[in-house]
């Protein structure tokens, strides 16, 4: 049922999404002179990796970081890329991942390939909680948006807080929460993450 609803909504919104993606892609070419699309392999359900589609927001380097939200990555974000990230528009091409059945509209935050190892090496994280989080993530699809995304700004990402929000949602995925995620995600697109989280503080 969840798969059918995700596919239905993705197909309904696809024409609008395609127009926005094309316009933003052309603007990236004109403003930043980069290839507008970015593909990154990420871990999915049951350990199956998938190619995550995004709009390009960072300057290319010869040695790109495999961990998201590092200071090095922040320094590479372009001005237009910052705008795209602030409004979540860089995630829009992931509608194709939804159509392919690789992610859901709502679910845990999609992670970079080496994030699990990065968290394993973090001695400040409780091992039992980490194992519980890893096991629960293995049996669900990640999401274009989710409980973590509307509670924790990506520009001040904290791994432990991210795990807590993921577990909180995975253990209590109520309809009320899903509605709040949809409403707040739309609000983020309209006003931007910085304004949204400023209002929450």
Question: How would you describe this structure to a colleague?
Answer:
With 201 residues, the protein is mainly alpha-helical. The chain has one domain. It contains ten helices and four strands, in the order H-E-E-H-H-H-E-H-H-E-H-H-H-H. Strands 1-2 form a two-stranded antiparallel sheet. The protein has a two-stranded parallel ribbon with strand order 3-4. A hairpin with a 5-residue loop joins strand 1 (37-43) and strand 2. The chain starts with a helix and ends with a helix. 28% of the residues are buried.
The domain tally reads 1
Distance between the termini: 36 Å
What characterizes the major β-sheet? Answer: 2 strands, antiparallel
Shape: globular
Brief write-up:
This protein is mainly alpha-helical. The protein contains ten helices and four strands; from the N terminus they run H-E-E-H-H-H-E-H-H-E-H-H-H-H. The protein has a two-stranded antiparallel ribbon with strand order 1-2. Strands 3-4 form a two-stranded parallel sheet.
Sequence-ordered SSE layout with sheet pairings:
Layout: H1 2-32, E1 37-43, E2 49-55, H2 71-76, H3 79-86, H4 95-99, E3 104-106, H5 115-120, H6 127-138, E4 143-145, H7 147-151, H8 159-171, H9 175-191, H10 193-200
Helix pairs in contact: 6-8, 9-10
Features:
two-stranded parallel ribbon, 201 residues, 55% helix, two-stranded antiparallel sheet, single chain
């Amino acid at each position: 049922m969840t798969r059918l609803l995700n596919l239905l909504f993705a197909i309904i919104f696809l024409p609008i999404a395609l127009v926005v993606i094309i316009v933003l892609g052309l603007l990236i070419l004109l403003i930043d002179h980069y290839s507008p699309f970015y593909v990154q392999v990420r871990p999915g359900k049951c350990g199956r990796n998938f190619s995550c589609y995004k709009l390009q927001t960072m300057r290319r380097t010869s040695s790109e970081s495999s961990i998201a939200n590092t200071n090095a990555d922040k320094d590479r974000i372009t001005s237009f890329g910052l705008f795209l990230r602030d409004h979540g528009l860089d995630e829009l091409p992931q509608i194709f991942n939804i159509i392919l059945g690789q992610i859901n509209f709502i679910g845990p935050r999609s992670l970079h390939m080496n994030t699990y190892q990065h968290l394993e090496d973090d001695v400040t994280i409780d091992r039992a909680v980490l194992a519980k989080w890893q096991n629960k993530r293995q049996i669900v699809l990640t999401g274009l948006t989710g409980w973590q995304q509307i509670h924790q700004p990506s520009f001040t990402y904290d791994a432990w807080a991210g795990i807590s929000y993921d577990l909180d949602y995975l253990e209590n995925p109520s309809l009320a929460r899903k509605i709040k995620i949809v409403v707040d995600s739309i609000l983020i697109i309209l006003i931007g993450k910085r304004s949204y989280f400023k209002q929450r503080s």
